[in-house]
Amino acid sequence: MMKKLFIGSCFFLIIVLILLLAYNFAFKGNDKIEPKVSLEENRIESPEEENRIKAITQEPVTGIFLDKIKEKIFFYSLANGKLWQIGLEGGQVENISNVDVIGLQDALWSVDGSKTISIISQSDNQKGFLFWDRNNNKKINLKNGVDEVAWDNLGTKIIYKYFEKNDNSKSVNVANPDGSSWKKIADTSFRNVAIEQIPQTSLVSFWNKGKSEEETNLMVAGMNGGELQKVFSGKFGADYKWSPDGKRAIISHLKDGSKKDLATGLVDREGFYKELGIPTMVSKMEWSLDNRHIYYALPAIPEGFNLPDDYKTKKFNTVDTFWKINIETGEKTRLIELADIDGIYDVYKPFLSPSEDAFFFINRVDEKIYRLKL
After folding, report:
1. Total-model pTM
2. Is the pLDDT at 47 greater than 60, yes or no?
């Protein structure tokens, strides 16, 4: 009897061991990734994820430039004007120049990143321009009378507005960065001018910087002069940004008859206008590389301010959400859900990574560079 009981017990123990081994083999590998259940909140807790929006610089910056080949972001420190670079993922910053640029407001980069024009505030409430060729360490102050500057598409010439004190004349000109071999493109009556060469063309566009009480005129002329054309007008407080293929530009402006409501549209080189239906500003918008989409921040704007003037003079900050629009279908898509936005962001000077997997911008709240993972 005892022998039979012993044999039965051993057989039962073997069956239990086999079942335990089978359970461990089937389920042990899943123990570490199975989400935990919180009894207090009665919900499933997902593994902790990195915030999709994060600051990649620790101090206020200006004069940003994306090197698409090296996949580096160059920027100047607002604290001392020194030049730094950082990778697209953030991380360690590298000092490029120890030279302090006193009074630095912004910096304009040539297309290859080898040259900059620094915009420097001066004691007489004016601004000066310092050209720097990084490859040759050549620095030249642009001549007095220059008050707006842009690079041409090749990064070999500058396009600038010049004010002649002797006769109060104003003109848009092109020259070498050191000011030599200059040539007038067109006369203008505008005091404050924005300038941009149209991509993939030899045409220069310029317009009076958008003000709420002033109709904005988009003008176009050839780099070598020729007939000056008014391409588009009739909108107040307007600004523009050309698509990479140069076929059309985003325009932000005040709604017709309004002094506070914003609107956006598209305008081509023939002056044809198409409404986009987005109440934002060009300074919060960026083209996709395929010219079919626009990434943008949609601002919540406090009451009692004059647009776009008070925003440009930094009298208030906006609270933005993040979107993309297909300009062919009009379909709008959130880049990040409202519940996942963990801070206050006032988007300024946005740009995309070379593979369009990240949306970068300066946050005007703290003037740091932020990265939104797409």
Report:
1. 0.85
2. no
